[in-house]
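hey can u check if this looks right to u? its 282 residues, i copy pasted from the old doc so theres a chance i mangled smth
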Amino acid sequence: MMLFDRSLIRSRRKRCAAYYLHDPFVHHEAEARLMDRIMCINKHFERVVVIGATSTEWRNLPNIGTCIFADLVAERLPQDSSLRLLCDEEWLPFAPHSLDAIISILTLHHLNDCVGALIQMRHALIPDGLMSCVTYGARSLHEVRSALTHAEMQRTGGITPRISPFMEVRDAGALLQRTGYALPVIDSDLLNITYPSLHALLHELRQSGEQNALIERSKSFTAPQLFMDASQYYHEHFSDAEHRLHATIELLFMNGWNPHHTQQQPSRRGSGTQSLRTLLEE
């Protein structure tokens, strides 16, 4: 099922590349938090691909060897790295069992075939290789969604899709299991960001290339009054004492490993030698 206009996403990423590399707070924060998680893994990854990076600090991590940076558009690739790869996240050009780890930073939410992309990543990993990514969770921008929905319902009696659907935590775990990953781990962080106005928030989304890319989005002119109504609703329901608007970003972190016989396995059902009742009585 085709949800997103990938050609539009590509052109927006190209247009916003300068901002993306220098000033996207959310992306930098997501990347830094994922980097911290990778550093805590007690394993060396010799051949690593990082998709969607803004920083070349990945090369300096003590447990990463050769690091290749990949992106959908050349303008978003870190310019101070000689190991750069232009590729579509939905059509990865890696040979089977050629990588120790694949890291993805805020790219999964705009894929039409997330299942296919994750399977391709797993096929590119060596046995016991790591796939680690961060994507937007379902609670992201719920305030914006609520304000725009309310304003549109009041004015037109219906709604059009204006915010991309994001992944639930439970769906992320099921997705990793469905695509064949072992030892899946999912966790999430919440960012609470404030803005002086709805206009400032929407401007930042445009600057980072994260505005609506749904194929079924409304392509007609949106009346300014709708945004004025949405802004009023936003101020009434999601502002603080200083009249700044709060916006939630949920960062969803997903880890999965290409299966290998040395990995920890669950015990066979019925193989326990002690009764739970005995343990509780002790």
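The radius of gyration is 21 Å.
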